[in-house]
Amino acid sequence: MPKLVGGSGPIDSKIVFVGEAPGAEEDRLGVPFVGVSGELLTSIIHGLGLAREDIYITNVVKERPKDNKIEQFIKFDKGRTLVTEAYTKYENFLYEELSHTKANVYVAIGGVALWALCRQDKISKRRGSILQGHWPPQGGKVVPIIHPASALRNYIFTHFIRFDLRRAIEESAYPDIRLPSRRLHIEPSFIEAMAYLQSCYNRPKLGFDIEVVNEEISCISIARTPYDCMSIPFVMEGRDYFTIDQEIAIWQEIANILETPSIEKVGHNVCFDSTFIFIKYGIRSVNLKDSMVSSSICYPDFPKGLDFVTSICTREPYYKDDG
Q: Quick one: DSSP state of residue 8?
């Protein structure tokens, strides 16, 4: 009969931590997250002004896996998630356990907890996202973080965990999910595209981004504000989206915007976008601000991709796999 390690902490806590499975020290003491990984997690929590004693902490799997190999219960393999009967029993036990909590936010610590709470994988991508939990009866608000055991092997993850736990603490103030509300205009008509572009001249700052397919610009997106953006396609389903005359008119408006010094243009790796547009159409973009350069200066050791910077600087959930 395996030794089971249950949850620890106040059941009415506003924050609940859900880990993977007990380790050697947890198995010995019968308390979750008291080993080396737990010490690191506790240190980060205290550094953010939160007491461990105020948090309810548990694990998906309640017994220590043999040789600490969680694959005996659950395995992520080339896009598939394989679970054993024992894992399913522990997961159902977890759902019953969580039904007695009243947390505003649940912190999924590592990939196993992310799967159990949200039926999603790829913890390194989804960490920091504000997600809807899936467990019955209606789930809850979930913020995933990288497991502190990974931070013991790769120190930079400690900073990611700190960022994401700070978000979880902020989210613990209320139970509902409050994501940014954005108006995204897609597949506009020629008249709608022209009207949107002409409305950009009175804006002090714009965001823009291009997508390139087969050495051609397939679309350009312009954002008047962080919450109002239009994506103007030039190719769709292998065909030109506009007539030649319409596309010329649109690019003339885009050129006027990009070449206007009084309008600040912001983009991620905008050096590439502006250079490509210049080589392709001779448009000389001015007054550019590159968020990739800015983030590299502020956080030189962090990843430079837009998805990562988005996870740190905004509340937008991970989006890259949306297609």
A: B
Which two tokens mark 257?
């915007």
**What per-residue string of b and e applies to 65-79 under the rule 16 or more CB within 10 Å gives b?**
beeeebebbbebeee
The DSSP line for 114-139 is HHHHHS---HHHHTT--EE---TTT-
Q: Determine the average pLDDT of the residues in 26-45.
A: 96
276-290 confidence digits (pLDDT tens): 999 999 999 999 999
Give φ, ψ of 11 to 5 degrees: -70, -20
**Residue 201 CA, distance from chain mean position:** 32
Q: With contact defined as beta carbons under 8 Å apart, do 185 and 192 qualify?
A: yes
DSSP tag of 99: T
Alpha carbon distance 295, 301 (integer Å): 10
d(CA 5, CA 29) in angstroms, rounded, equals: 9
Structure tokens at 81: 């998630």
Neighbour tally for 138: CB within 10 Å: 8
What pLDDT, in 10s, does the model give residues 54-113? 999 999 999 999 999 999 999 999 889 999 999 999 999 999 999 999 999 999 999 999
